[in-house]
Specification:
With 428 residues, this protein is an all-alpha fold. The protein has helices spanning 5-21, 23-30, 34-48, 54-62, 68-83, 87-92, 94-120, 124-134, 143-149, 153-181, 189-198, 200-233, 239-256, 262-275, 280-306, 310-343, 354-361, 368-374, 376-384, 387-423. GO terms for molecular function: antiporter activity.
């Protein structure tokens, strides 16, 4: 029997969903977080066994419905995760979160970029693009560990706040890198417009501020609009359709005018999560988005393992380990000590001592956002015939795959020991 390409695509989609379901019982029996298991399963059923084709994984992650499962999944994941963020935490640890998400992000992007360029011979702008992609952190995989260790609220709150707000910052830094390298590409048209009028330095800083402020204001407005609209009409179970529809509308509309939509999505989720009346229908909305977010993460991480070919694994595995260790044990600590050190200088702020900064510098696993962004240079290079992005696109997404996998596995193992050594035991 001859299977048509379309039919085989549906087989692959069904296979990915089934494989994803097994990650939970496997992780439970192995007593570890499920994300590395998803990536490994993607590697096994992708490049090793060939059930998930390399071309299909690339298409699904970056091109499905023109934007890819990665971006669509990111919308769902960030919207749900922001439900759980408390404005109290943001107010209390604002300076530290802001320092990590600005100074820390830039230090990470530049530092990782320098090492990437030195090791590969790539131009510094290519290194910066790699650094921008791996700059967002995702300590969500370590939250259960934080609870077991009874980590202080100021530390866990700062790290979780950092990870929530640095996702859009990583996307913005990538846009800046792409805009400098290829100003005529539509991906960074807003950045090009600003820099053409006010110059690179002022344009970059203005771009950063506008890309945060404009969508955040839009997201806050939509968040309160959803709440008051539901109070008037009472959508009951179809509240799920209303919220998801508006969030997708935000994403589409802001993307259409060249503005990153993710600060808006985060803001809408935070408003809905903190100011809704917590009725049974809002609880159903939260539970639905939690499950949808979990499924999106599972698909993305399996695809991450599947986009690598056996040749790429063998070619880049040594480099992947080296750059991963540099990011984890050199770049991240430097970024944390610089940014927290500057934040400690502010008045009326809780000061973090050297042991606390050391612990925070060792906690920064990479997650969904770097995975989603990892294929952007390669796809843009092919679509717009940009030689540098075509040449280095493969090593960028292969390297990001290793950084994500190794950072999660290593930090899952050593963070409990680092917590006890640097912070001591806390009584419940």
């Amino acid at each position: 029997m001859i299977i048509s390409p379309v039919t085989y695509d549906y087989y692959e989609i069904s296979f990915i969903l089934i494989v994803a379901a097994f990650s939970i019982p496997i992780s439970r029996k192995a007593s570890m977080v499920y994300i590395p298991i998803l990536i490994v399963m993607g590697l096994i059923f992708g490049p090793l066994l060939g059930f998930i084709k390399h071309s299909f994984a690339i298409y699904m992650l970056s091109s499905f419905a023109t934007i890819g499962v990665g971006m669509l999944g990111l919308v769902i994941i960030l919207y749900y995760e922001s439900h759980n963020f408390s404005p109290r935490i943001l107010r209390k640890y604002f300076y530290k979160i802001a320092a990590l998400d600005t100074i820390g992000m830039v230090v990470t992007a530049v530092g990782a970029g320098i090492f990437f360029s030195l090791l590969t011979g790539a131009p510094m702008i290519i290194g910066f693009i790699f650094g921008a992609i791996i700059s967002p952190t995702d300590p969500a995989s370590l939250i259960p560990t934080f609870k077991k260790l009874n980590i202080r609220d100021d530390i866990s709150g700062t790290l979780i706040g950092e990870s929530l707000f640095n996702d859009p910052l990583g996307i913005i830094l990538l846009s800046i890198g792409i805009g400098i390298l290829a100003p005529n590409v539509s991906y960074s048209s807003f950045f090009t417009l600003l820099t053409s009028h006010v110059g690179l330095v002022l344009g970059s800083s203005s771009f950063l501020l506008l890309e945060i402020a404009i969508p955040a204001a839009v997201g806050i407005a939509f968040g309160f609009f959803i709440i008051y609209l539901n109070k008037y009409f009472n959508f009951e179970s179809l509240l799920i359709a209303l919220t998801l529809g508006i969030v997708l509308f935000e994403f589409t509309s802001l993307e259409a005018v060249g503005i990153t939509p993710f600060p808006a999505i985060i803001a809408t989720g935070a408003i809905v999560g903190n100011f809704s009346d917590k009725s049974i229908f809002w609880n159903r909305e939260t539970n639905f988005n939690e499950n949808l977010s979990f499924m999106a993460q599972s698909i993305i991480f399996i695809l991450l393992g599947s986009i690598l070919t056996r040749t790429q694994i063998f070619n880049y595995i040594i480099f992947g380990f080296i750059i991963s260790l540099i990011v984890i044990f050199v770049v991240r600590p430097v970024a944390v000590f610089i940014s927290i050190g500057l934040a400690n200088m502010g008045k009326n702020t809780i000061k973090f001592d050297t042991r606390t900064k050391a612990f925070m510098s060792l906690v920064g696993p990479r997650g969904v956002v770097p995975v989603v962004l990892s294929t952007v240079p390669f796809v843009l290079g092919q679509a717009n015939h940009i030689p540098l992005l075509i040449e280095y696109g493969t090593i960028i997404y292969a390297s990001v795959s290793f950084v994500v996998l190794i950072s999660i596995i290593l930090q899952t193992i050593y963070v409990p020991y680092a917590g006890r050594l640097l912070l001591g035991e806390r009584k419940h």
